[in-house]
Each structure stands twice: as C-alpha cells, then as structure tokens.
User: Which sequence fits this backbone?
C-alpha cells in the first residue's frame, strides 16, 4: 500500500549536490585556464630573453662600422632583432635593440657601445612600448606607463 504524501529524497539531494559542485568545477576550470595563460606568457618571456641574448652575441661578434641611424636586422625563423645606431660621439654609440616575436611579444633594450674596445655600457631593457628620442646628444626615454619618465644622460 502506498501513501500519497510520501516523496523521494534522492532526486532533490542529487540536485543539491550538483548545484554545489558546479561553482567548484567552474572555479577549478578558471584556475586551470589562468595557469595555462601564465605558462604561455612565461614561455614567450623566456623566448624573448634568449633571442635578445643571441642577438647581442651576434652583434658583438660581427664587426660593424659605426654608421649613424644604421639599422641592422637579424632574422630567426619568423622572429627578428633590430639594432639601430642612434648616436656616435668619441667612439661611443647609443644603440637601441628591438626584439619582436611572431606572436607579437616584444622587448626593447638599449646600450652604449664603445667601438674601439668592443664593450657595452649602460644596458637597459623595457618590456612594453617605448618611444625613444634623441635631443642634442642626450637620450630621452619616455615610458608610457602613467607619468613615469626615465631619462638617460
């Protein structure tokens, strides 16, 4: 004999457990995707770093002539490194380096290069977009991050 007011408890309990599990699963998926993006960006960062080191070694190994506003470009697969000679005074040049990956990641660096001794001085790097101006033999590096300005004299 069956009582009409009797109801099952398994289905509502199953629904309650499912509703509690959905946010947990979504949170775990979000953490996984963040970790995946983080690893991708770390790989690109390491790729840019190693490409910059290889390009610097190649530039220092090759004997170039100091020509003002000369652009020297090295290609590695679909990635490229561009060296630009901006200034030449007393055997020392200010050279900017731009590394661009096929993925769009880039790194900008610069240094003073002594052509007679083949030495690098005052090396710096920036990861985001930078505009470089040369005014009266002084380099002005203006970084587009709020109101931060870095001046190299």
Assistant:
């Amino acid at each position: 004999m069956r009582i009409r007011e009797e109801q099952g408890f398994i289905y509502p309990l199953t629904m309650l457990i499912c509703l509690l599990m959905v946010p947990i699963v979504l949170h775990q998926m979000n953490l996984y995707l963040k970790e995946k993006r983080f690893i991708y960006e770390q790989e690109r960062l390491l790729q840019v770093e190693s490409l910059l080191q290889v390009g610097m070694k190649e530039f220092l190994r090759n004997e170039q002539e100091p020509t003002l506003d000369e652009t020297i470009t090295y290609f590695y697969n679909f990635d490229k490194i561009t060296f630009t000679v901006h200034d030449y005074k007393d055997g020392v040049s200010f050279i900017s380096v731009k590394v661009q990956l096929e993925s769009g990641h880039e790194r900008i660096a610069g240094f003073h290069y002594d052509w007679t001794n083949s030495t690098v001085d005052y090396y710096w790097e920036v990861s985001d977009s930078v505009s470089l101006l040369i005014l009266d033999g002084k380099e002005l590096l203006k970084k587009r991050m709020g109101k931060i300005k870095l001046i190299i004299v």
In short: Confidence is low (pLDDT under 50) at residues 129-153. The radius of gyration is 28 Å. Strands lie at 71-76, 79-89, 92-100, 106-114, 119-126, 130-135, 138-143, 150-152.
